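Q: What does the assembled structure look like for these inputs?
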Amino acid sequence: MTTAPPSSSLPPPATPPVDTQEGIALAAPRSFAHATGFVYDARMMMHATLADDGHPEQPQRIARIFEMLQRHGCIDRMVRIPAREALRHEVESVHQPQLWDRFESIVKLPVDQLKAYSNDLEISSSLYLNMHSTYCARLACGSVMDMCSAVAAGRVRNGIAIVRPPGHHAEPDSGTGFCLYNNVAVAVQHLLDRPPGAADRVQRVLILDWDVHHGNGTQRAFWNDPRVLYVSLHRYENGTFYPGTHYGHYDQVGGPQALGTSVNVPWPCAGMNDADYLHAFQRCIMPIAYEFSPDLVIISAGFDAAVGDILGGCLVSPTGYAHMTHQLASLARGKLVVALEGGYTLDAIASSALAVTQTLLGDPLPPWPTGLSCSMAGADTVARVVRAQAPYWACMRQSLDYPPAPKEAGVATWATDELYLDARAARLWANHQMMPLPAVGDALLRNQALCTPSTMMPGTQTLLVFVHDMGTWHIGDPDDPQQPALFLADAADDMIQWAHTRGFACLDLCTTQSVSVRMLRNGERDKALPRPDAKPVKTTLEAQALYIWDHVCALSPAQQIVFLGFGSGCDALMHIIANRVVQDRVKAVVQVMGLQPIPLVPKQRQELKAWYLEHSLVLCPCDHPLYTWNEQQASGKRLGRVQRALESNPMQVLLRAKDALDTLLGAPTAPPTATPAPPAPVVTSAS
Amino acid sequence: MTTAPPSSSLPPPATPPVDTQEGIALAAPRSFAHATGFVYDARMMMHATLADDGHPEQPQRIARIFEMLQRHGCIDRMVRIPAREALRHEVESVHQPQLWDRFESIVKLPVDQLKAYSNDLEISSSLYLNMHSTYCARLACGSVMDMCSAVAAGRVRNGIAIVRPPGHHAEPDSGTGFCLYNNVAVAVQHLLDRPPGAADRVQRVLILDWDVHHGNGTQRAFWNDPRVLYVSLHRYENGTFYPGTHYGHYDQVGGPQALGTSVNVPWPCAGMNDADYLHAFQRCIMPIAYEFSPDLVIISAGFDAAVGDILGGCLVSPTGYAHMTHQLASLARGKLVVALEGGYTLDAIASSALAVTQTLLGDPLPPWPTGLSCSMAGADTVARVVRAQAPYWACMRQSLDYPPAPKEAGVATWATDELYLDARAARLWANHQMMPLPAVGDALLRNQALCTPSTMMPGTQTLLVFVHDMGTWHIGDPDDPQQPALFLADAADDMIQWAHTRGFACLDLCTTQSVSVRMLRNGERDKALPRPDAKPVKTTLEAQALYIWDHVCALSPAQQIVFLGFGSGCDALMHIIANRVVQDRVKAVVQVMGLQPIPLVPKQRQELKAWYLEHSLVLCPCDHPLYTWNEQQASGKRLGRVQRALESNPMQVLLRAKDALDTLLGAPTAPPTATPAPPAPVVTSAS
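A:
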């Protein structure tokens, strides 16, 4: 994106432009510098679906918000900023010219054709159009632009732009997800492009997008621009929630020139509440925002995470929105613009917008409810964001539990994961005389392969091939004085012990493909090193898995082989299954999932598929994404026999693999143990 | 403390009381509910020192603040709340009756006697008095009470009490540190004691004390009261900074009925700046405050951490104070009272108070400066606070880097420290055939003792006894792709290797007396378990040290023994020196300090002291508290030969012990190495 040409050189725009400066000067003279501005214009209700299908992005959305503000006396205390259409060259500072032309030609089609086209568009791009759509989109965009300009220049203190259609899904080359043009992105680009000395010129902008969907368009527009910090909290769910790509994951941190200026808080499920949002704000968003120190803050304010929203499924209350607004108001001398994005339940968006507006006006915040606490999913997500952003923000490194690395060289160091593997090797040698096998692949991504001596001994009946992630680091339960501050919980040794009691030989491949590796990979800046992606980790583990198959399993005298996968080990075992002939010897495959997607049934050959369906079982934690939100999304996929465990902790589920293996092998039932057997899990889906 | 009796049953007070409710009703009728209140009364300047010594707690403090607020138009925008004297029974809700009587009798002494008494008092208790002191103290206390009542009842939105003498050092049974009565504590107790249904009754109060000194009096008043969350940020410096006790340390978390309701952020040195304070607010204070959810917030606002304060030595700017105020204003519906405590440089306190008042009035915050970052000392302190408070606050557990412990039982766990010791034992066995010695003492506090076979072999010349803390956990340097997320840095193996090259036998005693143990200890709630203190850890290590002396060193054929202590190992070695006869065999003692106090030269016997001074050397990191603030505080102590290293990282200093040991032993200089020798450290103090 380059600086827009001076307007004198532009062709006359299609609609009569309103001079930005004057338009505002009329509504908000100098004396309004402490006031809160608003834009509302009923003309933006003209954009509506021709299909008469009760589309959630309905015209009444903005009217209802306006009425609520009026009823509570807010409008009387605010300064109106007139709506105005964005000009073509302004829109094109973010979007490609073809997009403007395409939309303009569509909306001029005869109604029947337009209706048909819009139907197609809605299916392909979640976007509807009528004859007024581009006019409304220009109004929405221009209004956000003028509001941002007024706040940036100090003509009003802060403001809210009650506009539609929304903008944050609109990418430079396409309008999608109810969005034609990216209102906020165009407004920000405009202010960044203002000439030096202009009153409304800005140098650094924070866009905080609390719409329940990831603002892919806004992130794309400023992906590689270090002047714009884009922060989004949204449902992600392994990339299955709209817009349905990996682009909103916490490891998406910005382009090579702007690492750390995309901050994604990707909720793994529905139901996130005020405490989850507050935790994200306190733990990472506000510290990063302070370190970035913007001179303008824009909230891409979808209210579809609000309690009661028909699409969002989250639980943010007006109180939550007010507190987030208050925190953001501490930045940029309080220069804060709220621009409406999504939000589809009229009562919910109106009461949310009211709370935000009252906060803009300086009213006392509603009190924070007692007894509300952040969910496990929320805390875990935020912790991952902190680690992903730590390479780029000093505040994220400082707020980690342990001090940053000292600068001085010369002191030897050991990584936690390395210590764990060393200690585990010593332990398994002492307990089971397990011996190391050679490691292959990238030395940085440490795998550890160990096997019992019986693996290669004649007479061995059964060989368990156990490929698994290392356990999880936890902080101790404060009510349990036996627990230390930080510890690793891992059921892998228990599985080895179980195999020992069954008389199985055991080949154990443990991978430290954990947080530390991910952070390390993110930490590699794009200097001399090529930018890595998640590929090498997987490839290394798959290569190691093939190696142990070829060099150990294939040579083992064991009569039957049993596969047990855990976490990323599941994919590694599927890699063996897909690339080697295993059906003759492998009698059982049990895959224990963490929160990652379930591997698909191999479909290269029909008989391989049939074999897999007969001999395999997938165990899922009870809160696996398969079950949390949209159950039908997962159905119809070819996942094999999937069982939902009663437990949410994957380590607990791993312990259930004992029974599953016994079942598949037709072995005698487990010997009586001290603890009673758990209730049988429920089979939920089968291909 | 019990509810105060209804005032009708009280004896008539000594001074004519002003009815609290009416007094305010006059000044602030209902229409002031959105206004900011202030108390200022020049009569409080009558408290002054008789000694004419330019005492820093000078009358002009409050006048200068008032003038600054007036000059900037704040006073015109505020509502005045009249000053009034606190009544005896009100003061006695916090203080013992003897205190009131004692002060009243002193101030009625003839001037000469009063002057002499005041001089004595200033030496013993840092408190001066004149004939007006109790009158002013009653005014200050009553004014803070009325301001808090007005805000609690919603008669004004928030307010500032510009009062003196200050109060936060005054404990229930004594006035100290420029404080007679504890203004804030009395005000809070009064509101807590109000009858149900009273407009100004409160249930939970947050007192945020940002005075640079710990508010020992306030903490004491509510130590065991779960209704009051007392949070203090202050210089601590191993308990040497005023008030000079352990009571302001981060492990002081409240009494058994109120664990977690004292939150201390004890800065280890001077020079803390806005970013350090912001980090503490974001990382622990605001999350805890939200979880506590007070219905009134009071800032014990000393401004002696301000840039330029003659006593404080810190660097908090008006911007910093404004931002902290804004954050606190999000709590309790914005019911926020600012009560002046310390602060001794007139310009600094006036501009700080102005920034705070403008924030109370809702003015935009000054922009946060770019490029300001939290210090290593600040980040480390806050991390310790987080861990100390984690047992009592869900938000602190959730914001740790690793997820909380899963509730389900049955999954095996390994503590990081345990893993480290296991891995280390395996490594030192592989490299040096070091073997384990029995451990003694508390099994929870794991020590690991290892020795080389040569320890007990005839012909061994020298035995190195190395007692040390385990290394430090760090997060990786993001610019170094070789570093993982979390790792341990430890120079202990390097010392073992060095001893090996010197031909020394080696006895290594490593202790995990680390953060995890401390947190564990704090985590033991006062239910069935007795409340632990720091004693057991030290005792265990000392017992283990004596054991290895008696059972190994005393029996070793080695001709000379060398002691090397690191961290808490220093005290353990001193315990051997003090309790066994070691002078004949121990030829050198090198103590490498972290940030803990330097052990004192043993003085039980004169010849022991002489021996120690001749054969020992203490190495300190360059930022050891001995050097950071008050150099003369350390002088005159009997610390032996202390060398200040060039490095701040204790692990780096440990590596310097090699040269120190060579020097003490008169050994040949170190063989040439790849790195040039560092400049000789400077001897700074000798007993």
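The CA atoms of residues 235 and 241 of chain A lie 6 Å apart.
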